[in-house]
Every structure is written in C-alpha cells, then in structure tokens.
Amino acid sequence: MVDEISALLSLINTSARSLERGYTDERGRVPSLDDTEPHPLDGQISSPEMREAVQVLEGACAQLCATLARPNHTVLNKFFMTALEPSCLRVALNCKIPDILQHKPAGMHVADIGKICGVDAPKLARILRLLSAKHCFQEVERDVFANTRLSVQLLSANPLYSLGLHMTEDTTQGATQLAETLADAEWGPSTDPAHSAFNKVTNQPLPMFDFWAQDPEMQSHGTRFGIGMLGWGTAVEAEAVVRAYPWHALPRGATVCDLGGGVGAMAIALARAHPHLRLKLQDLPARMAQARAVVWPAECPAALAEDRIEFKAIDFFAEAPIAGCDVYYLKNILHAFPAAECRTILKGVRQAMKPGSRVLIHEYTLQTAGRSALQQQLTHAPAPLLGNYGAGRIRQYHLDVSLMVLVNGGERTLEEYVQLAEEAGLRFVRVWEFGDMNGVELCAGEGEC
C-alpha cells in the first residue's frame, strides 16, 4: 500500500508539473482561480499531453483521497451531500448571478444581489457559500461574493448556461425517479424511450425530444438543449475531431453528412477548418430552421455565401440520409436509442453510401474491466490508477446514466458498436481518439474498405 501511495503522489506531481509547463511554455503564466478573463489557452483544443495530464491528475487525486480518508467520510462528502449541488447551481443560473457579478469584479454584497434577483439574501448567501467552497464564486469577505474562473463560464451568453439549465432541471428532476423507474416491473427492463425516469417525473407518454417538439410550452427546452450542446461540445473538446481525423486527405468537394447534427456545431467547426469540404446538415425540422435562420448566419456566414452547406430535415427512422456522401458523421446520436433503432439508423446510412464511403460514429466508448482485443485499442491509464482513469474520465459514466434518465439510452462499449455495425451490414475499420471521446470508423463492407 505504501508503494501505491507513492505511485499516486508521483503521478499527481508529474501531471501537475506537466500542466504547469504547458501553460508557461505557451503563454507565460498559469491561470489563477481569481481570473475572470479567459486564459489564452482556454479557447484552444488541449494538446494530447495536457489532456492526458488532466485525466491522470483528476484520477490520481480522487483515488488518493478515497484511499486515505475514512470511507464513511468519503461516502458522505462525495456521494450523499453532492446531491444538493445541482439545485444550488440552478438558483445561481435562474438568478443569473454570474451576470450580476460581472459588473462588480471586486465583489457585491449578497443583500444587493438578492435585491436584483428577488431572492432572500440570507438564504442566497448560504447557497453561494456552498458553491464558493468548490470555487464556483468566491466569498471575498463575509457576505460579499465575486466571480471566479469557473463561474464566468455560467454567464448567460455562454452556451454552458443553457446546458446548465437543462442538466439542473430536466436531468436532475428525472434522476429523482430513477430508482422508482428501475423498480417498476414494466419500465425497469424496458428500452422504450418513453419508459424513462424523465417520463415518470413529467407524467406524459412521449419520449423527451417528441415531448419538447409537440408541446408548445416545452419547445423552449428543445431550443435550450440545442444551444447547450454547443457548450457541451466546447467543454468536452469535441472539435478535436477536426484535427485528429484526416479530413484534409479528402478531395476538394468531398461531401460530409452531419446526420442528427442539431444546429450544426460540428459542421460549423468543419466548415471553418476545412473549406474544401461540402457539408450536409440533417436533423429535425425545428433544428434545421434554427440552424438556417439563426445559428449559421451568425456563426459561419461564409459557408452560406459560398454554398458549402445544405440543410435538409430528416426522420432517420423513416428515410435514408442524403445519398452518395463521402463521410456520414454521427455525433451523439446512437447513444440516445436502443439497439433496434440504432440498427435502423445505420441501415439507412448503409443504403445511402457509395463505394468508398465511411461512417464515423463520434461518441464515448465505455471502458470496462477486462482487456479484450478491442478494448486494447483504447488508451489505458498508468498504474495504479483504474484502467479507465477513474474520476479522470468520469464524464462518460455521468453521461451514460443521464441518457438512461432522460431517454432510456446509454453509452456503449467498442464491442457493442462493432456488433451494431455488423448487424447493419457495415464493417469496423478502426477507433480514433478525439479528446474525451472516440470515433468508431466503419466502411460499407468487405470489398469496399
């Protein structure tokens, strides 16, 4: 055990020093928690070395604390009491407290904050104090609060604000009924998206996305979710796919279909980085209208002016995507559906493909205990960390359970993706690493790969 503690301490020191060098080599300073202006590296995709160092640092710190602290202490602090944090964060989001504090960088007394947002000041102070203990806000003196490097990510202009509202409302409320849903004799084993914990809470019969689309009072949730996904993509560095996959090797005029791409966050990134590509964006009619009228004119007007982007609504359970594209890109699509629906989607893609086409599934691939031949293709953490990095890659397991709560979906292992592909007439080519996430590349069959 002494050797394991020493190894964890060594990993912590090595990874922290690596991150320190990464900051100072590039821009000359390590960011402070008190900073409310972004560090120059904050808007860039992390280098593989810095990304690995963060995962090791988080995993090793969590494993060391779990090893050395009393187990009842850790269970209480890390599992039980953290259930309160989303509700506290929702108060801050609803009140737009980061926006309020943005105009008072030295801090504002909670009495003044309370007057602006209409919340009882003594109670608000207690909520902000809890969040400040985790460095989201800071209490600069008693009852005087200011923004931090973390809380400025929650400004209402940041897409993470919309994601935060979704996570602290739809997801958190749904999670309150997870145990009851799993214990239900009919719903527990069901893969029906309308048999989710979210449905238990909302007491209505439609899958979440259909509910949002068909209920006029809930349509704002769909719009909010679309904006929030822009923030999610930035936070998980989904745009790493723009560099890591060989888009540059595709010929000029090659077509990429972003299937189920929402308002087109990833398509925008591809359009900016690889102007030689022609892009096809396909999703539900409401998302296409939002993309065409609002998002692309603001975020990527050049692609519109140069006719490099096409918008086409689709129901990918009833029709195939645009035919003859060179790459069919599916980001965070299959994880929302059970296997039967995934096979339907992939068979539709297979129908649309031409010889030489590729499919690129961009999602998390869950790492589990055991090291099968396919699992060996994924990066494993250095000993004595858990092979999946533990807390260093906790996001994929949080997302997995969130999908269970909301739509009865979930993340999959690489073996499960390969099986789905084969059942749809596709063949596994290789797995890529795109930041936090992975890319599972498929081709159309034995003779076309």
From TrEMBL:
Region Disordered: which residues?
23-45
Keyword Protein biosynthesis in the entry? The reply is no
Check the record and name the PROSITE patterns matching this protein.
Answer: SAM_OMT_II
Q: Per the UniProt entry, what are the Gene Ontology biological process annotations, in alphabetical order?
A: methylation
Keywords (A to Z) from UniProt: Methyltransferase, S-adenosyl-L-methionine, Transferase
User: What GO MF annotations does this protein's record show?
Assistant: O-methyltransferase activity; protein dimerization activity
Q: Protein name, please? A: S-adenosyl-L-methionine-dependent methyltransferase
Q: Which organism is it from?
A: Mycena rosella
